[in-house]
Amino acid sequence: MSGSGKPTGLDLGENKGPNILAPMWALTMIMMSLVCARIFIRARVVKKVGLDDWIIMVSMLMGLAYLGITTANVVTGYGRHAAALDTPHLEMAILLNTIGFLFGILSFTLPKIAVAYMLTRILNPSRGHKIFVFGLVSLAAVVSIVCILILFTMCSPPQAQWQVTRPDRVCRSPWILIDYAIFTGALSAFVDLYLAVYPAVVLWKLHMSTKKKLALTAALGLGTVAAAMAVVKCTQLKGLADTADYTYGTWQLVIWTNVEANVVVIASCIPTLQPLLDFILGRKRKGSSYNSRSFNRLEKGSQGLNGSRSIEMRGVRSKQQSISVTNVEGQDSQESILSPDHRHQPSDDLKHIRRTDNVTVQYEPRENSSKATSTGMCSSTGKEHSYIFRATIIIHISVIILNLPYPTRPIISTTMGSVKLPHVPRAGVWAPAVTALNQETDTLDLETAKKYYDYLSRSGLAGLVILGTNAETFLLTREERAQLITTAREAVGPDYPLMAGVGGHSTKQVLEFSQDAYNAGANYLLVLPPAYFGKQTTPAVIKRFYADVARKAPLPVILYNFPAVTNGVDLDSEIITDIVNASAAESPSGVSNVVGVKLTCAQVGKITRLSSTFGPDKFSIFGGQSDFLLGGLSVGSAGCIAAFANIFPKTLSHIYDLYKSGKVQEALALHQKAALAESPSKSGIATTKYAVAIYSAPKAGIENAEEKFQPRTPYEPATEAIKQLVRKAMAELAAYEDKL
User: Fold this and answer.
1) Per residue in 460-488, pLDDT tens?
2) Active-site residue among 16, 300, 598, 689?
3) Which of 9, 45, 142, 217 could serve as a FRET partner for 192 with CA atoms 20 to 30 Å apart?
4) What structural domains and CATH numbers belong to the chain?
C-alpha cells in the first residue's frame, strides 16, 4: 500500500468521502437523538436511569467516536484511491481507519448487552434462560474483542499495520482477519436475530389481539433489521483484502459497520419513546402519572406487576388461567378503566369511563410448589411456591408501544379452575414490618428494607403489613410511605399479600394514602379511625368516615382498632358490624368492601361476637398482638397481625400451624414461651426494632442492623437495660427459631 505509481484504469480524482459521511452522519444523528430522548424519558419522566440506559449511552459515545474518527479520516484522504495519496496521508488514513474499527466494533457489540438486560428485565425468563441469553451476548462480546486483537496484531511490529514503508514490516494474510470477522459478523447477526425473535415467540403464544401482537413484535423485534445489516456488512469484509488500495477498497465496510451499530441502538430505544410523545403533546393522563411510583415499576428488578419480580413469560403450558386486567385512570379520561365491582365501587364524583381487557394467560407452578391453599391463594409460603404470571407485562409494553392508557396500577383478579383469590386477607400470622433508616441522612434505607421484606416473606407468614404502627408510619412523609410499599412489592414478588397502613386525620388524607398504596402494589388497606379530636370522634363520625373510605378506596379495607394510638377512640363490635353491613348495602353486588379488622385492644370478646356474625370467607378478624393468638383462634379469629412476628416469624407461624393441625397442647406450650418472650417488646417500637436487629435482621443478610433499625427522631433507641432484658427474655425462643 503506497502512494507511488499510478495504476492505469483508475480515476485518481474519485473520492467516496461524501458517500461515506452522508449516511454515517445522518444515521448517527438519528441514533443520538433517540438516545437523548430515551435518557430524557428515563431521567425526567420515569425518574430512573437503569444499567441498560448507561450501556446505551456508552454505545452512543462509541458511535460518535467512530463518526468523528471517520470524518477526520475522510479529510485526510480516506475514500480516495491509495495511489492518489502521498505516503504520510496514506499512513494516517490507514491508522485512523484501524482505530475507527475499534470503536465501530464496540459500538455494535455493547448495545446487545443493553438489549439483553432490557428483555430479561421485562420478560423475566427462567434462571437457565437468563444465563443462556447473557451467555450468548457475552460470547459475542468476547468474540468481538478477539477480533479487535487480531486487527491490531496483523503485522509485526503492530505499527507496521499503517506504516507501510517500514523495512522490517511483516504482515499475515488479510484473509485471517477477514475469515474471523465474517465469523464475528455471523455471530453478531445471530445474537441480534435471537434477541428480536425471543420476545416475539413469547408474545405470539399469549392470547391477545393480532394487532397488539404485531405492534409489540415489531417494536421489540427491530433487532432483525440489525441482523440484516450485520449480514450485509459481512459481504463487504472482502475489501480488507485489497491491501493495494486499502483506503478505497474498505469504504463500504466502514458505512455498514456504522449502520449496524446505529440500528441496534435505535432498535433498543424505540420501545421506550411513547411517554415522550405524550409529554410533548401534553397527553400526560391524569391519574396515570408516568412517575417513579407507576411507570418505573416496569424498570425494576424484575419488573412486571407493580415493579415486582417473579413475573415470567414462558412457553405454552398444559394449564391455563383466566385473568381480568383492569386499568384505572384519572378523572374524565376517555381511556379510563374501572376495577371490577367485586373489588370496590368508584366514588360518585369520579366520572370514569369503563373499559376492561380480558387476557387469557398460561401458568405453571414452580418446582416443589404446593397446591393452592383452601383460601384460594396461589402460594402457602410466599415466592418459592408462587405461580408464574405473564399478563401484566403485556399491559406495560402495550402502553409504551401502542399508545394505550397507562394504568395507575393493574388490578388482576385470578381464576384457577373454579377457585378465586380471596377478597378477604388470608388467615395466618402477618408481620407489621418495621422500617430501616439511614441514621446519617435521616432517610429510608430501601436496600435494607428490601432484604428484610424478602426474608419475612420466606418465613412462613401469611402476609406483610407495610406502614403499620411499628413502621413509624406517622413519622414518614407521603413519598416515603409510597416508597416503602413499592420496595416491599419488589422484594416479595407479585402474588405475596401486602396490606398497607393508610391512617390519616381526614377522609381526604386517607384516600390519598390509599391511592398511593394502590399505585405502589398493595392488596389491602389497614385504616385507623380519625382521632385527632378524640371527643368529637363520635360513633356517627366513625361510621361516616369508614363509609366514605369503603366506597371510594381502590382496595379492600381492614379496620384497625388501636385505642392506645387513637386518643382512646375504641371501635366496639356493634360499630364494626354496622360499618361492614353499610358497605355491603351500598355495593351493587352486595359484597362489603370492608373485609376485616385488626383488634389491638386485646378484647377476645369482640372476636367472639364478630366471628359469630360474619363468616371467615367474608370477614377476617385478626388479633393485634401475638400473646392472645390461640385465644383468638379458639373463638374464631383468622390469626394475628403482631409486631412480635418481626422478631420470630417462623415461631409464630409454627404456633398457628400447630393449632390448625390439631396439636393444641404443643401449640399452647410454645405459645406460652412466646408470650413471655414478647413481653419486653411491648415497651415500645425501639425495643422491637432492637430485637429485630439482633435476631431476624442478621438472618436476612443485613449488616450493622442495630444502627439501621433505630427509631426515627425525636424518639430514642433502646436503653442498655432494655437491651439486656431483651436478650435474657428472648434467648430461649431465639434458639427455637434457629431450629425451624
Assistant:
1) 999 999 999 999 999 999 999 999 999 99
2) 598
3) 45
4) 17-276 (1.20.1070), 287-421 (no CATH), 428-663 (3.20.20.70)
